[in-house]
Amino acid sequence: MQGKSKLREWATPIIIGAFALSAVTGVMLFFKIQLGFVKPVHEWLSWLLVIGAILHMIVNRPFFMKYISKPVGRSILIFFFLLICVSMLPLDDKQRRHPFAKIADTLINSPLLAVAKVANHEPDEVISILKSNGIYTDSKDQTIREIAMKNDKDPLRILDSIF
Predict the structure, then answer these.
(1) What single-letter DSSP state applies at residue 79?
(2) How confident is the model at residue 153, as a pLDDT?
């Protein structure tokens, strides 16, 4: 019994803290808020949530068994199991993507010269706009993706400043 008490002492704070970390970083990622180390922290430290949940289930095994023995608890767990299975089904990315995403990909992979024309600007005007936003280009033939990589910027942010 002493071992379970010690495990509970660790498991509960780990799961609470890891849930808070995963929830906050997950919401930030959902809303495309890319601050600091949000993405790697969410991806790597979410393992703490998994570990905490396993420890929590070990400590509270009798209660979990009681939950899944009842129809409501069992139905909820089956629902989430099915949701996990459905989320792993392969999707044809090209067909299911929003048309705006396809347009954005095309623009990101196009040279600055072509994007300037689409945005109804002169290429030199676009270069000036980008420069005023701290984004530097080598030539009008560079793609938006290349410019983004060189300047360590999100390509969509570059398109946003052009349009």
Answers:
(1) H
(2) 93
